[in-house]
Amino acid sequence: MLADKAALLASTPEPWRAPFKVLQPPQSVHEPRSTVEGNPEPEIPPWWWQALSGDGIVLKPQRGHGGRGVIHFRWTGSALEQQALFRRLPADAPQADNAVVPNPKQLLAHWHRHCRCQEPALAAPYLKHSSELPATDPSVVVRVITSRPWPEAPVAVQQAWLEVPLCEGAVAFISPDGERLPILGKPLTVAQLSGLDQWTQLLKNNAPSCVRACLEAAVRMHERLSPMDQVAWDWIPASPQPFLLEGNGGFGLLVPQLFAYHQSKAAKAVMP
């Protein structure tokens, strides 16, 4: 279920589910001719044109992981803008044919050229986070790790943090109570430090309701699954309800371990 992003979204309660569509690649030329002829044009969902010409559409692998191939496309009226959301686009990234607004088949073909693959893609409108939070580009993602240590145990939030894009490409990892991890690499610029301070102060005062809603929804989603010990959920903290991006059964442990280390240090510091 978690590996199949469309199946998970289809089982998600409607308030937490944004519109989406699975785009299937053309069938292999080696398949029988009758099968290929019976492969219809992909249906254009009712939200397609408005989303593409508005905030844009995101395509990602139907069974992807690690931020691979997550690309934001937006039609400006004369050109198709493209932005990788979790990784940089290569210098030789293919450019789209700007003569036409792409339909699902055309955008999938362009995405295939980007990713050098022929796999199904999940398409959905680009989602913006709540106005309770400062504006960022791209939107903030809230990752929530939920835990159920044995099948009959209640589900609880084990770790949570916000992945906050700062200006000039930096990303900050900040817990809902305002604790942040060090940002490695070049020293932060004045603008980046100002943005980081704005976020930490906002969260330290009290996590906005859109962030708390992500934690509550993650627990409810874990309860709907067959027994499993841990799930890492990715949410857009929208209003009035958060939107689920995906759930992951296998996920990186470095960030949660770093937050756990910082929390243990803080606990020891206040011990008598």
Précis, in short:
The protein is built from seven helices and ten strands. The chain is an alpha+beta fold.
Structure write-up:
The protein folds into two domains: 18-125, no CATH class; 141-270, D-amino Acid Aminotransferase, Chain A, domain 1 (2-Layer Sandwich). Helices cover 28% and strands 21% of the residues. The protein has seven helices and ten strands. The strands form two sheets. A five-stranded antiparallel sheet has the order 1-5-2-3-4. It has a five-stranded antiparallel sheet with strand order 8-7-6-9-10.
Structural class: alpha+beta
How far do the termini sit from each other? 47 Å
Q: Report the sheet-strand fraction.
A: 15-25%
| Number of domain modules | 2
CATH level-1 class of the largest domain: Alpha Beta
CATH topology of the largest domain, which one? D-amino Acid Aminotransferase, Chain A, domain 1
Radius of gyration: 20 Å
In CATH, the architecture of the largest domain is 2-Layer Sandwich
Q: Given the structure, what is the number of helices?
A: 7
Mean pLDDT: 89
Keywords:
272 residues, alpha+beta, D-amino Acid Aminotransferase, Chain A, domain 1, 2 domains, five-stranded antiparallel β-sheet, 10 strands, 28% helix, 21% strand, globular
How are the secondary structure elements laid out?
Layout: H1 5-10, E1 21-23, H2 33-37, H3 48-53, E2 57-61, E3 71-75, E4 80-84, H4 104-115, E5 121-125, E6 141-147, E7 156-165, E8 171-174, H5 190-205, H6 209-223, E9 230-236, E10 243-248, H7 254-270
Antiparallel strand pairs: 1-5, 2-3, 2-5, 3-4, 6-7, 6-9, 7-8, 9-10
